[in-house]
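pasting for the record
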Amino acid sequence: MSFFSDHTDEYGDEDLHGTDSGGDDDSDSDASVSSFSSSELPDESFEPMPEHLTLPLELQQRILGQETSQFQLMWGTYRFVSRAWKEHVEFLAKTEWVTTGAFEYPGYMIRHPKDGKVFLCGFFEFLRLDGDTAVFQAECAREYHKNLVVACKATAPPDVQVCGFVHDVPIAGMEVEWKTLIITCPWRAIVGRVLAEELRVEAYRARTNRRMMTKVKRLRSGGMDKIGEALDLFAAHLHGAYAAVRKARLGRADKRGDERLKQARVAASWRLLAAGDESEEEEEEEDSDSNSSAERESDSDESSDEESGVYHLNLHHQSEDSDAYTPTQ
């Protein structure tokens, strides 16, 4: 029995609005996502909203742009509301979300004759967009380059992350240039595949939530002593969904890989928080600079007014002296 809908295309796009489809978990069709299919079009049986209740498109786009966490819902749900929403969500994905993407090869520890123990881990960060191709690059000292390549190949495939979500899913069209340590892939492939896997996890959680809540309610009779067990159940429900979905995809259990991905998600969350703090600091610096500039302009205006006032005052005294001097002549 499948946990998920089987509407999946070559880039991992999914429509998970339905219930259990009973199809193969890993089935991928060749349908293109560059335009709507008949199943993706909005339901025309609903009457259109009155014009006076419809928000301007610009305001709708600003609202969509304010979303900072539920990226998987924007990709898997909001994107199918209308053509305008589809275009804007994909615009955000291409210009903002993909910049948070990365590939990470777990690597391993080696012993270097000069530096001792060295951990080789291939972390490919977003570099740039070339059209519809996302480019990622890793940095490595020249003396470790060959060792790093061997370590990456030995621990392939890499973990893939977007918007703080981390999964070890295959990415269609991914290519690695080991000489320059560059990975390229379609931007839609990495965004769509990672967010699709996250939607699978949420679908699994929704199906198992009642079972988890039933277990929590049974602990109520234990009072305060059972709070710890209840928290453990919530944590198991949160992290266990990732392991269950991954097991269904791989066809086998991999506890070591599950733990590695769990730690990778924690690290990715910290990186997002750090990036957010840096952007806030930059905004504060910009505001501080603009305020300082405004204060300097204000001080300059005041000083010029004072100089002007003194100048006119001197002229006034001169005129009085001139008037007083004339009669004596």
